[in-house]
Amino acid sequence: VFAGMNGSAIENFSCMIYYVSFMNCTWRAGRDAPGDTQYFLYWKNSRYDDAMECEFYIKDENGRNTGCRFQNVKIEAEEAYFLVNGSSKDSLIQFYDEYIELYKIEILTPPLNVTVNCTRDPAGCIITWQPPLTSHMEKVDCFAYEISIQKK
């Protein structure tokens, strides 16, 4: 049973990783949370890590924490744990927690060094590229690519 007032926990929690090692998490204040409610995010990248509080909060116009920016995030093999709790002078605030596999929320960079070499003879064109940057994938053959060629 969750302690705290129903409807006071955050809603719409979501995170994404971009440019290899940056992560943003955002949420909305609980529908029925008192106006003075402030939220705090804690996370563990793996079960062996200590829980850490967010360093760089994203705030709304009222100064309420509605997100967090992370730097130097490494994608580990196991799920990361996120906990957002809240405080208010008026009432107890319910907490929200979630386990997330970080590789599933990574937005990959485009493939690198894309080159196109075309010849006039029937051989056509050779397109080459290197895999996108990522912090966790050693196997290049894990990537799948799709080429869309538009004739001009």
Key attributes of the depicted protein:
152 residues; mainly beta; four-stranded antiparallel β-sheet; 10 strands; 0% helix; 39% strand; elongated; CSF2R factor; signal; membrane
Written account of the structure:
- The protein is an all-beta fold.
- It contains no helices and 10 strands.
- The strands form 3 sheets. Strands 1-2-6-5 form a 4-stranded antiparallel beta sheet, with no helix packed on it. Strands 4-3-7-8 form a 4-stranded antiparallel beta sheet, with no helix packed on it.
- The mean pLDDT is 90.
- Keywords: Glycoprotein, Membrane, Receptor, Signal, Transmembrane, Transmembrane helix.
- Residues 12-105 form the Type I cytokine receptor cytokine-binding domain.
- GO terms for molecular function: cytokine receptor activity.
- It is found in: Membrane.
- It is a single-pass type I membrane protein.
What is this structure, in a nutshell?
The protein is an all-beta fold and 152 residues long. It contains no helices and ten strands.
In DSSP terms (H or I, runs of 4 or more residues), the helix count works out at 0
SS elements, strand count: 10
Radius of gyration: 22 Å
Strand share of the residues?
35-45%
Low-pLDDT segments:
none
- Written as H for each helix and E for each strand, in order along the chain, the element string is EEEEEEEEEE
Mean pLDDT equals 90
Major sheet description: 4 strands, antiparallel
Helical residue percent band:
under 10%
Report how far apart the termini are: 63 Å
Strand order of the largest sheet: 1-2-6-5
Structural class category: mainly beta
Shape type:
elongated
GO molecular function: cytokine receptor activity
Protein name: CSF2R factor
GO cellular component, one term: external side of plasma membrane
Membrane topology: Single-pass type I membrane protein
